[in-house]
Amino acid sequence: MAFQLEKLLRPHISQIKPYSSARDEYSGKVGVFLDANENPYGSLTNEPFNRYPDPYQLEIKEKLASLKEVEIGQIFLGNGSDEAIDLLMRAFCNPGKDNIILLPPTYGMYEVSASINDIEIKRVNLTADFQLKVEEILAAVDEFTKVIFICSPNNPSGNKMDRNAIREVLQKFEGLVVVDEAYIDFSDEPSFIHELGKYSNLLVMQTFSKAWGLANLRIGMAFASTEIIRILNLIKPPYNISGLTQQKVLESLDQADRIDDLVKNVLSERIFLEDELDKLHFVLHVFPSHANFLLVKMDQARKIYEYLIHDMIIVRDRSKVVLCEDCLRISVGTREENIQLIEALNRYEPIIQNL
Ligand SMILES: *Cc1c(COP(=O)(O)O)cnc(C)c1O
Known about the structure:
CATH superfamily of the largest domain: Type I PLP-dependent aspartate aminotransferase-like (Major domain)
Number of strands: 11
Order of helices and strands: HHHEHEHEHEHEEEHHHEEHEEH
CATH class of the largest domain: Alpha Beta
Strand content: 5-15%
Bound molecules: pyridoxal-5'-phosphate
Helix content: 25-40%
Strand order of the largest sheet: 1-7-6-5-4-2-3
Distance between the termini: 61 Å
Structural class: alpha/beta
CATH architecture of the largest domain: 3-Layer(aba) Sandwich
Shape: globular
């Protein structure tokens, strides 16, 4: 494998000296801290929010390192996975020159982030059953291709990608391959984190926003070689994860053994929802899901979407997305919410029959 990080990196990035924050220069916890222009009297809420947080979130990373079986230096934490996506663009892709490859239908933020950074996007659609077209992906690669984004389980289709297809891309592409595992906790699929040792061009993204139920706190994870992670740490804003977020994530990690139960609830609700949706005559297909949502093909999806909005039930209209024509993406809710959805959809039937 001819992956060379130096070659992939934008030239000026390797010259950058990181911002040295006050908290970098002295890492002890006790002392008289007169170095960061904080308010020594505290904050109005009586909690110690007057001090800047740990810029490298080491307490969280220690727990994550043992949970995920990686080195601390292989972990990057971002203000949501979205921050990691943006940092990857800025580290590796020269605006107006380099390109990335996306595999539609896929997560929208890759495109948004590339566009903001003026990075060209090449697209290779997935197959009709949402798998990688490996040969076409590799054929789309040119000398300016820096990153390929693979989402597995995929948003919005919900399926997992064939592992050997991902491995083939990792082996044959000399740039960075991002495997976005935002939904991995809902799948029986092992994480690609276990393959980091085999592929130096692999970066795996996960998030606290989905299974962990912490979307509001904004924290995402990236796992890769220490060399790649060092770059992300170099260019990130110094205090990108707030102290409050770090505190709540630590509390959650201390109860990591309870995640399985949270996930089990979602999975059994997913089965319930799938069964109920299948009974509706205007539902043409419920795609098999390895995530916490269902992609559902319906007769006149857009109309049903609008009808549901009118009933104050909000799902995601994917009906104009390539390969998702006439599809809505429905997150698995609580039993109560799912029943509300199904009852609303049942009320929709007579309207159709009256036409
Ligand atoms: C929800 C989601 C994320 C998570 O983004 P955060 O910024 O961490 O909330 C990442 N990737 C995909 C594919 C997602 O659907």
